[in-house]
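INPUT
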Amino acid sequence: MTDRSAFDGFVQARGPALARTAYLLTGDHHLAEDLVQAALVQAAKHWERIHTSPEAYVRRAMYHQNISWWRRRKLAETPLESYDAPVPAADPTLRLTLEQALRRLTPRQRTVLVLRYFEDLTEVQTAAELGISSGAVKSMSRQALQRLRVLAPELADLVGADA
Amino acid sequence: MSTDLREELDALARTQTFSPDPSAWDRGRRARRRTRVAAGAAAVAVVAAVAGAGALVLQPDREARTASSEVVEGGAIPSRIDDIPADLEPTTDLAVGRGAAAFISTSQRVPAVVTAADGVAHLLDLPGWDEDGQALALSPDGLKLAWQQTGDGGATIGVLELTTGRQRSDEVHPDDLALRELTWSPDSQWLGWLGDADGGAHVGQLPVPGADLGLSTFVEGNVSSLAIGNAADVVIGAKGGLHRITVDQPELITRTTGVGPGLFSPDARFVALRSAPSGASSTLRLSDGAVLTHPFPDGTFDSGAVIPLGWLDDRHQLLQVWSAADEDAELVVTTPQVGPTSTWRRSVGSIDASIAGRVSLAVDLVPDLDGTSSQELTRDFDTADEPPAPFGIELSLFIGLGVAAAIAVLLALRWLWRRLLG
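OUTPUT
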């Protein structure tokens, strides 16, 4: 199997899963596509080195790339004035509320949340993926859940009252 | 909580579709090639810089080779003149090239010539040279060397053309005189000579181009020294004064003590005088017989013996000032007297104490004065033979900074490229 066909096979097999994670990380469908695409370009660039376990590389690239993008957007965009105000209860469904609340988290908080509660990684594994300490993961995870509760009180049952 | 949250997150994530972009692979591979090219260029730059620096470091004789093979146009007088090493062998190949300085070696009692192109001293195996000889003089143009030849006949002067090795001999007196002085006219066309005899001294002129016109005069009493001009006019020091040699007898110019004739100026208006230790240099003005003095400036020499070594032009003299017998002599450029346009510049060069007083210089090699005190009138051949340290430091710094700058630029480009690619 050539490198190109192996890469194509990997993209075909794991692309959808990567895209789902990317969406949770970015909270935006277009950004999610771009994030996956950028990570796949990086994977193609270093394919000889990572071809035995490309998914771990691509995911890690996505995590870091998303935070990097957010930093740049943060410099270019004006912060919301009522950042911590509760999400208007215009959306009746829990899922839409969760989606909007996630967008109000910082990329680091959202990333930690995705890795811990979507990817089912332990605190240690999450810390290793992000290159931070386990304590930082624990702290950010707690802060993310607290913020979700503030942003969307109706998610209290979902995220736990004592988290 | 976790299970519910995971389910909701999963459900939320499933709203994202995935449509693979077939260009990802090609874009990745192009980026890889660009990185490799950049890395290769950086490596080549670093290797080139390191190799260049290494080549420079591993060529310690680079400057020496330049100095030894590069012929300085016309040559130069060394800024320091030392006696030759005691183990240097005399050479019979006398065409050593234009000379800058000549002296009788103290260590071997053999004539030595320092060549103008490279500042290298050569011991010459001159025909008829007697180790007790005192008469040796380099012409002001550095092309001819005169010495007394000993043999069966009378007093004989040999003249060697240093660039060709050609020699000529002229018997200047039928008696076997020991010549004490040999001196050149400023245009290197005449030789004046002085040989002691019973009751006085013989003084003569010898035209170097070869005309059979040698003249000599017997002067009673002690003759201290002589000078000869471009027109073969001779001034001697004798009988408590300075005298002009005429056909018959010396003609008194002025009475003075403590000085003796040194060298005529090119225009024959002045004669730079030798002087015993004092606080000034002295010059005879021939038009009125006045002895002009130029005191040593404050803070220079308290006292010094002066020996003229040449005239740079009709106004400026090159003198050797010797303040103490055990100290090196200094070369000084000055004018006959103090005035609005007078000059006094010390440390033009130095002469080792062991040979001070026996050195003649090719003064024509001194460049025309440009009026600045920073002008180099002599050349430091020793320094030119060694890699100049300040330049070496600057070069190393330059290479180091260049490599660092190249790496920084490449890193910056890499960072910028990644930012643009996102």
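end of record. Chain B touches chain A through 30 residues (CB under 8 Å).
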